[in-house]
């Protein structure tokens, strides 16, 4: 540990020395801005949620729409129910989800439930695919979902109302104002659904699957001067679900409420010395399952600084502290308290044809010895002329996932001495861009060790243990184009991913899984979006394809879920008159009435329809 | 343990509930063998008329509980022989199966219902559903009535609050009466003139409920060591109950007419919840951690060494004895994430064969 800390400090010292040297040469003040993550994670692949899809389907949760955007799989336990991501062949706890810079995965379960991430709450949704622990910390194996709610729209006011099949209603209200140095953006939203859809091929309606979800998002900002500001972000989400039972089940009463408060207060300054940010945060995650409350409270403090040396070397350093209190009955009479401190540093440089970056992170966790996490990556322009560009991207990283609080503190089962999961990941890709036409391919590989699994021991008691080794590898290809034919714009994007996620080694009790694909991890995944734009009209089609998913460890065909192709369509029209704008949208979901399941035995609805009307008032043009 | 994943830590808790063993109502064998003898001369009634059934729970919440048929003559297994109205599997958490009058009553603990199949062809005949069927466990038939043990709902602190025995009229398939009982009611057996239901509740209940099928009324509780579960009726018509006990497991012999406890034997170990009986009904079989024990009904102390040991057993989950040849069957459900396995040992305690079952083999029915 000391050696690692030493290595880490040496890295920082070198960087600072380099800066000092730079300063002596460079006396004139420079404007330094914080670089986006894409630059610090050179050689990586990022996906951004398509703005048309986000706008039209912002009443849906992220687990319902992301799979239309890029090859990814969500195991949804029914319609609107618990939703876990499987990104690049990993399991749901192997994707980190961050909101405005703080990790919002469940600290008790490890994973993020995408059904309580309503799209309307976010102004920006981005996904980093592949290993990224050096930048995003624990759990960034398959990737990281980056969410922000910082507003940024030019609307002063917007109101949306939706009405859809199976008693589904959605309302959102957003308002923004600015008074001198103070500005504020607020949103309120509510979605509710009876969700009693007819079960495909069965003369019954889905019982016990109603849900509602509501919340408030606030982003406020006080600009002290051009270079200094204070921002406040607050998000409260309150979700209630009747738990959709498996097909044919009677007398179900399980209900779950999720209530999440997330609060972040930041001070930022951007001066000749660099860009600094100090953040304080508070997260309160409550789950009420059948009136049984579990709660995790978290206090967060972080500080970061970015600066430039020798004109083009970007360097950043950060420290983050999480103080976690696990108020869960099953952890025992005394709520366990733990601290996690992460120290991280990054350096980035753009050469003529090479953009290069290096990141290093050292986490420190109560009772857990965490490894030093490097990330190195580069984007190399192989060939470039006026018409086209060929780019080679590559990166390699070491990643980790801390054992969850359940893994460590569950009474009579949890193990304090569990090791963190670790992974080594590497990938390389080639991109060819010719005007709007873009083709990219990428191959990836990851080796996960010390994978934690709950396995039965003496007296049939399940305990978490570091028993599993998993190899994931695959290739991905995507094509994107946009053409203009007279007044009509056509755009399309398709992507395909081949993923193997193989258990290489595990506990004897689970020997059947060795050499087999992980459950709910399709080998073949595809996505596609197509749009036709004509003036103020647009027609969109969104597709997702998933190959066979095994639901048992031994990959028996009998328990596997059949492949499916799912399509959504939407027709949209907007009117604008001065500052006033109206949008109308009709969405046809599951156009082909595909009979599919995302989780074994949980029905999903057939063809259904949704109407949306929204009004927005924009700022006067200055 | 992927089924830990669903919703909240609560699920792990629920899961523990399922990790306790289910056992077969031995009396079924009596009934079945009677029918089997009678029909020997006739044409086969169906593909599954003779042989053994393995009841597989499936992955909790996955709706993929199934029934495996094993042809004891050819040694061939056929998976997933019964499909419910959805058409893929028997249902969620297939708990137990009771055959009566050529009908198989399949108790679905997760689906809160009973599926009815033709016991010889396993064609679907119908469903018994009722608001009172919540976490059903075992079913026993006397005359035209079925007696179904149900654990009932959990409250917010995971305490069972309304365990009962439901009386179902098999001519209408309607629940006609609810007999409240101690928490965590489990097995139910017809012995002598009464029905006996063990109140297990993971060792927190310590009674056996007595019901009079002539009046469908509660008679009394018989106090036994804590956590009674598996039961068997011996050659003398006496009822044997295996209990978890406080320190170690206990066998209790009950006189089914006087309800007197005649014998208690401390087993000196923590046995699993299943109890089986040899074809001559003179020896009981129980097991723990892959060690299978045999004890004569005349014994006064427990055997110190196992009858045989299964070395490569993952997680024992079912125990049964073939009433025709005395073969001892043990079901292995290593993780509930993949198909399980059945070990067959001869009456001499020597390994005979193994075959693959569905996920989580929990009970055997021999017919």
UniProtKB/TrEMBL annotation, chain A:
Membrane topology: Multi-pass membrane protein
TonB-dependent receptor-like beta-barrel domain: residues covered: 191-591
Keywords for this protein: Cell outer membrane, Membrane, Receptor, Signal, TonB box, Transmembrane, Transmembrane beta strand, Transport
Alphabetized InterPro entries for the sequence: Beta-barrel_TonB (IPR000531), Beta-barrel_TonB_sf (IPR036942), Plug_dom (IPR012910), Plug_dom_sf (IPR037066), TonB-dep_rcpt-like (IPR039426)
Record localization: Cell outer membrane
Signal sequence residues: 1-20
Domain TonB-dependent receptor plug: 53-144
UniProt xrefs under Pfam families: Plug, TonB_dep_Rec_b-barrel
Main location: membrane
Family the entry assigns: Belongs to the TonB-dependent receptor family.
Stated name of the protein: TonB-dependent receptor
Species name: Chryseolinea lacunae
Automatic annotation (TrEMBL), chain B:
SUPFAM superfamilies, A to Z: YVTN repeat-like/Quinoprotein amine dehydrogenase (SSF50969)
Protein name in the entry: YncE family protein
Annotated PANTHER family: DIHYDRO-HEME D1 DEHYDROGENASE, PROTEIN NIRF
Domain of life the protein comes from: Bacteria
Coiled coil residues, start to end: none
Organism: Chryseolinea lacunae
């Amino acid at each position: 540990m000391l050696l690692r800390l030493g290595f880490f400090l040496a890295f920082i010292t070198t960087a600072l020395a380099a800066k000092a040297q730079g300063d002596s040469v460079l006396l004139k003040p420079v404007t330094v801005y914080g670089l986006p993550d894409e630059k610090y994670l050179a050689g990586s692949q990022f996906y951004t949620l398509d703005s048309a899809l986000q706008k039209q389907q912002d009443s849906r949760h992220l687990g319902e729409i992301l799979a239309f955007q890029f090859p990814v799989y969500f195991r949804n336990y029914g319609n609107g129910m618990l939703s876990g991501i499987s990104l690049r062949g990993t399991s749901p706890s192997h994707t980190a989800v961050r909101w405005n810079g703080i990790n919002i995965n469940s600290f008790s379960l490890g994973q993020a439930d995408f059904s309580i991430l309503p799209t309307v709450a976010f102004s920006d949704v981005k996904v980093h695919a592949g290993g990224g622990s050096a930048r995003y910390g624990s759990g960034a194996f398959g990737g990281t979902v980056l969410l922000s709610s910082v507003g940024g729209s030019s609307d002063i006011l917007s109101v949306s109302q939706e009405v859809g099949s199976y008693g589904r209603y959605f309302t959102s209200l957003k308002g923004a104002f600015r008074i001198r140095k103070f500005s504020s953006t607020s949103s309120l939203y509510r979605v509710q659904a009876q969700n009693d859809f007819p079960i495909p091929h069965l003369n019954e309606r889905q019982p016990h699957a109603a849900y509602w979800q509501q919340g408030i998002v606030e982003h406020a900002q006080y600009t002290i001067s051009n270079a200094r500001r204070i921002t406040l972000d607050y998000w409260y989400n309150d979700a209630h679900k009747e738990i959709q039972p498996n097909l044919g089940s009677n007398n179900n009463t399980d209900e779950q409420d999720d209530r999440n408060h997330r609060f972040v207060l930041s001070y930022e300054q951007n001066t000749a010395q660099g860009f600094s940010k100090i953040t304080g945060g508070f997260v309160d995650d409550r789950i009420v399952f059948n009136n049984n409350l579990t709660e995790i409270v978290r206090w967060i403090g972080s500080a970061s600084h970015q600066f430039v040396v020798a004109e083009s070397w970007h360097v950043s350093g950060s420290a983050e502290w999480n103080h976690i209190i696990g108020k869960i009955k099953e952890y025992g009479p005394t709520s366990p308290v733990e601290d996690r401190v992460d120290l991280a540093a990054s350096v980035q440089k753009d050469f003529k044809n090479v953009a290069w970056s290096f990141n290093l992170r050292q986490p420190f966790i109560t009772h857990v010895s965490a490894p030093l996490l490097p990330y190195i990556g580069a984007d190399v322009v192989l060939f470039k002329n006026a018409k086209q560009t060929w780019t080679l991207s590559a990166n390699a990283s070491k990643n980790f996932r801390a054992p969850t609080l359940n893994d460590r503190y569950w009474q009579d089962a949890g193990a304090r001495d569990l090791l963190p999961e670790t992974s080594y990941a590497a990938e390389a890709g080639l991109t060819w861009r010719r005007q709007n036409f873009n083709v990219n391919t990428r191959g990836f590989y990851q080796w996960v060790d010390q994978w934690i699994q709950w396995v039965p021991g003496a007296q049939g008691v399940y305990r978490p243990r570091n028993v599993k080794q998993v190899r994931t590898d695959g290739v991905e290809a995507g094509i994107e184009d946009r053409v203009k034919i007279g007044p009509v714009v056509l755009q399309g994007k398709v992507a395909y991913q081949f993923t193997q996620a193989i258990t290489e080694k595990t506990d004897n009790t689970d020997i059947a899984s060795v050499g087999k694909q992980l459950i709910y991890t399709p080998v073949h995944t595809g996505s596609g979006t197509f749009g036709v734009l004509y003036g103020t009209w647009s027609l969109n089609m969104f597709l997702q394809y998933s190959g066979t998913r095994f639901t048992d460890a031994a990959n028996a065909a009998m328990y596997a879920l059949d492949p499916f192709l799912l399509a959504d369509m939407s027709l949209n029209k907007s009117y604008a008159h001065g500052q006033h704008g109206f949008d109308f949208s009709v969405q046809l979901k599951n156009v082909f009435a595909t009979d599919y399941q995302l989780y074994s035995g949980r029905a999903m609805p057939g063809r259904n329809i949704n109407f949306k009307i929204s009004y927005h008032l924009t700022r006067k043009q200055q | 343990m992927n089924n830990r994943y669903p919703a909240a830590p609560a699920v792990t808790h629920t899961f523990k509930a399922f990790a306790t063993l289910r056992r077969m109502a031995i009396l079924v064998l009596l009934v079945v063998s009677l029918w089997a003898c009678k029909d020997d001369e006739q044409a086969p009634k169906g593909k599954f008329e003779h042989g053994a059934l393995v009841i597989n729970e499936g992955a909790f919440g996955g709706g993929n509980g199934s029934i495996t048929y094993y042809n004891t003559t050819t040694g061939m297994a056929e998976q997933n022989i019964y499909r419910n109205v959805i058409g893929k599997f028997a249902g969620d958490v297939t708990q137990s199966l009771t055959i009566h009058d050529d009908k198989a009553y399949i108790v679905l603990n997760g689906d809160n219902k009973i599926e009815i199949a033709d016991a010889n062809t396993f064609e679907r005949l119908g469903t018994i559903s009722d608001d009172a069927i919540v976490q059903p466990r075992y079913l026993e038939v006397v005359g035209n009535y079925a007696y179904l043990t149900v654990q009932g709902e959990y409250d917010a602190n995971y305490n069972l609050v309304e365990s009962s025995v439901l009386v179902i009229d098999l001519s209408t398939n309607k629940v006609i009466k609810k007999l409240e009982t101690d928490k965590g009611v489990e097995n139910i057996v017809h012995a002598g003139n009464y029905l006996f239901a063990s109140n297990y509740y993971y060792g927190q209940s310590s009674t056996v409920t007595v019901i009079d099928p002539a009046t469908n009324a509660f008679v009394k509780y018989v106090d036994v060591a804590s956590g009674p579960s598996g039961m068997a009726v011996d050659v003398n018509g006496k009822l044997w109950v295996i209990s978890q006990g406080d320190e170690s497991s206990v066998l209790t012999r009950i006189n089914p007419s006087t309800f007197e406890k005649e014998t208690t034997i401390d087993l000196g170990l923590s046995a699993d919840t299943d109890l089986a009986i040899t074809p001559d009904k003179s020896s009981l079989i129980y097991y723990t951690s892959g060690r299978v024990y045999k004890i004569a009904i005349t014994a006064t102390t427990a055997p110190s060494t196992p009858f045989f040991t299964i070395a490569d057993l993952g997680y024992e989950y079912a125990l049964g004895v073939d009433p025709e040849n005395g073969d001892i069957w043990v079901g292995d459900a290593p993780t509930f994430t993949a198909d399980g396995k059945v070990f067959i040992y001869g009456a001499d305690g020597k390994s005979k064969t193994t075959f693959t079952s569905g996920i989580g083999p929990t009970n055997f029915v021999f017919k």
